[in-house]
Amino acid sequence: MKFVSTRGKVEPLGFSEAVMEGLAGDGGLFVPEFLPDISNKLESWRGLSYSKLCFEFFKLFADDIPQGDLEKIIDASYKKFDDAQIAPLSKLDDKTYLLELYHGPTLAFKDFALQLLGNLYEYLLEKSGRVINVLGATSGDTGSAAINGLFGKKNVNIFILYPDGRVSPLQERQMTCTGASNVFPIAIDGTFDDAQAIVKELFGDADFKKKWSLAAVNSINLARILAQCVYYVYAYLKLPPDRAQSARFVVPTGNFGNVLAGWLACKMGMKVRGFTVATNQNDILYRLFKTGVYEVGEVKPSYAPSMDIQVSSNFERFIYFAENKDTCKVREIMQAFKSSGKWIFENFNADVFSSVRCDDSSIKKNIRNVYEKYGKIIDPHTACGFENLDGGVNVVLSTAHPAKFPEVIKSAISRDVKSPILEELKQRKIERMECGANSDFIREIIKERGIRK
């Protein structure tokens, strides 16, 4: 299997090299050269454990890693989850299911991909004798999950940029209280979009990227998206067969990566009714699917901070497939969007997507309604998924543990929600770096703290 850039200006790479590259040299994102058909495999996958299913799925893509090694990497990646099912599917009522994706070590769905990516990096670095400096941006959960997947590992330092004051206090503690010597959390004076722009700029500087062996953990890394495909297939196979094909996955998302993974699984042969893109008040994706206009607005801090995003980096992968792999068209769209912050899609086809928007007052209302109706406490991001559910079978993705957002939960239902993992962090010292939203500052930090052979 080869992987190509959405912008078509670099040579195809094998799986391992594409993972190590992160962002393609032409500024595009790596995608599979073709999407394999899994429709004839699904029945044989039914009943597999999560890690076994992940292995069967990844075999289709990571064909340059010996299968025995790949199986060991995947098995190790799901050892830290606190539920034996890894991604349990809870039935709330006859038509509503909750896919619990918060049982990993940092209590968020990002653990599914970043535990695996951390182990992939460790394996590939040991095989090659290379070192890397991982650079990423986070709006909350990616940073802590990436750090947990990489702290203490040999031959890798990790630099995570996050918007100062715009992540929850416990999300910040998960990034800044590890005490690991290879971890560098950097609070920037700006938004997540500012942080993400810095990351893309540094990856786009070919000389700097090569000199400092930059690697990516953001969902620009193709391994992230492929790993997230697996829990959609797992949930699909857990549903009663007569419900699976009529199910709609409802996905809280800001960066489009989470819902893109489900859509790709659908393109590979997992037949479902569709996907609902659930946004908070930062609703660029909601506006896109309603109007066909992709236009940046102002980022507004919300109760669901991991979705406080306007520029959805993974949307470029969707454009690539939606435009029939026309890389010239992708380059045109992305250049226009970069220049003007806007693109109008003519005859926009939303495919299997719908969208809902949920402001802060509705987030609290949905938390309260779910608790009163089902006795289930959900976090603010998951709450966006319960906005205007249609009357069909719905699988809502629960993306984070509610204990990460205790103030919002307390305000909504007058309940304290705690996690021993998070309570222990409150006793530790916060260690972080601070700087302005300027790529030059980050360059200097990497030059000073980065690892080199």
What are the salient characteristics of this protein?
six-stranded mixed β-sheet, 20 helices, Rossmann fold, pyridoxal phosphate, Thr_synth_N_sf, five-stranded parallel β-sheet, amino-acid biosynthesis, threonine biosynthesis, 453 residues, Threonine synthase, 43% helix, single chain, alpha/beta
How would you characterize this protein structure?
Belongs to the threonine synthase family. The chain has a domain at 85-105 and 227-419: Rossmann fold, CATH 3.40.50.1100. It has a six-stranded mixed β-sheet with strand order 3-4-14-9-10-13. The mean pLDDT is 94. It is globular. With 453 residues, it is of the alpha/beta class. The chain contains 20 helices and 15 strands. Helix content is 43%, strand content 16%. α3 packs antiparallel against α4 (67-77), α5 (110-128) packs across α10 (222-238) and α6 packs parallel to α7 (169-176). The relative contact order is 0.15. The two termini are 30 Å apart.
Q: Architecture of the domain at 85-105 and 227-419 in CATH?
A: 3-Layer(aba) Sandwich
Distance between the termini: 30 Å
Number of helices: 20
CATH structural class of the domain at 85-105 and 227-419: Alpha Beta
Query: What gross morphology would you assign?
Result: globular
How confident overall, as mean pLDDT? 94
